[in-house]
Specification:
Length: about 400
């Protein structure tokens, strides 16, 4: 395998930070971390590009930092997609099995997958993922791969994720203008799930929430497949804004205060410590109790978690989540948030820490790098499937409609 083919790059374009992760496939097949780059995101708002030039500069800065550390160029990348404009829906397709002996072929699987995707969409939206849930052969449910089975009717259940065409195109355009080529786009919460969830959790039933700067993205797994996705249009930026308004301090200072002194549950604070807070428009500072900061943070954190709870209840899967709730993303690191989440949702809660890479240091061994790590692992799965050249019915559960060359693997 050529050196270039062994390099896999994940690019997490977030609302507050852009993270680049360059890995190499070692001789034993393991993924080794080569380089990491982090830059402040500019030109994006809740996952949407609002200033293209600023977005390009942020992406380029993160990539160049990772390239300098790795000593290689990031020629092609796997990019995350997120934002409140992302929508998901469940769909089904069914066909009559053709052929004299009624044996299900690849062509039958292709036709039934196309039937499931035949949904009516507004002209400004496109399908970015088709996530296969299960196949059904003559009313026999729970079939993972029907290839070679006998039957007269083949059905499939899928979860379809859509995005405005321009939203995804602008992200891809921003990356391409840095000189890198976008191999595929992956929904942010799916990439985070790839890095943080175990297969038995997905089988048992688990909800993952990726708490980003602009939004909190929810994905629910049941019986190993995605059964629901949703976006809560609130994130860490809203907490930062509340601190800035409540303490009358600049946004950058509010973000720093949140990271260094924030706590999502005031009842967990045991000391009456104080923090020096700069005032808006002057260099004067004043002392503020940490409890006051927590009193500002907790209501907004409860609002975010409350909307997550209501979304889970609305789906009807609340009683089936044996794996509980997993919080990941940079804002899940806020002290007291896990305890508040357990109290708010009445579910067991843990933090999702990315796994699966060799050479992970303290920089990336935390929840803020879950999406970037998941993108690299996703890219490696595609590489393995191509090398094995094995037919995959329904594939790896992900289908990027905009990237035709991946269809052979996904379908």
């Amino acid at each position: 395998m050529a050196k270039k083919e062994r390099i896999i790059v994940g690019l997490d374009v977030g609302t507050t930070e852009t993270r680049a992760l360059i890995c190499e496939v070692a001789a034993d097949g393991r993924l080794e971390v080569l380089g990491v780059g982090v830059a402040e995101s500019k030109g994006l708002r809740q996952g949407v590009v609002v200033k293209l030039d600023d977005a390009i500069r942020s992406i380029k800065e993160a990539l160049e930092e990772a390239e300098m550390m790795a000593g290689v160029q990031a020629e092609s990348v796997y990019v995350s997609l997120g934002g409140k404009h992302i929508k998901g829906m469940n769909s089904q397709g069914s066909i009559a099995v053709l052929g004299r002996n009624r044996e299900i072929t690849k062509e039958d699987i292709r036709r039934v997958m196309e039937a499931a995707q035949a949904v009516v969409l507004p002209s400004d939206r496109e399908i970015i993922h088709v996530l296969r849930q299960q196949f059904i052969v003559d009313n026999q449910e729970g079939i993972d791969d029907p290839l070679g089975m006998l039957g007269t009717r083949l059905e499939v259940s899928v979860h379809i994720i859509t995005s405005p065409i321009t939203a995804s195109m602008n992200i891809v355009s921003a990356v391409n203008r840095t000189g890198a080529y976008v191999k595929a786009t992956v929904l942010q919460s799916l990439a985070s799930a790839e890095a943080t969830l175990a297969s038995d959790e997905k089988e048992l039933g688990v909800a993952l929430v990726d708490m980003g700067g602009g939004t909190s993205d929810l994905v629910i797994f049941l019986h190993g497949a995605v059964c629901h996705t949703a976006v809560v249009p609130l994130g860490g930026e809203h907490i930062t804004s509340d601190i800035a308004i409540g303490l009358r301090t600049p946004i950058p200072e509010a973000e720093k205060i949140k990271r260094e002194h924030g706590c999502a549950m005031a009842s967990l604070l045991t000391e009456d410590s104080e923090v020096e807070v700069p005032s808006v428009g002057s260099k004067r500072t004043r002392s503020v109790p940490c409890k006051l900061i927590s009193d500002i943070i907790q209501p907004r954190a409860e609002e975010i978690l409350g909307q997550v709870r209501e979304e889970i209840r609305r789906t009807g899967f609340e009683k089936q989540l044996g794996g509980g709730l997993v919080l990941t993303g940079g804002n899940s690191r806020l002290p007291g948030l896990l305890e508040l989440a357990e109290q708010t949702t009445d579910l067991p809660v843990r933090q999702g820490i990315p796994e699966g890479l060799n050479g992970m240091n303290n920089t990336i061994n935390n929840a803020s790098f879950a999406t970037a790590v998941g993108l690299v692992r996703f890219g490696n799965r595609i590489r393995l499937a191509r090398e094995s050249n094995e037919p995959r019915a329904g594939g790896g559960r992900l289908l990027g409609k905009s990237f035709e060359k991946l269809k052979g693997f996904f379908q």
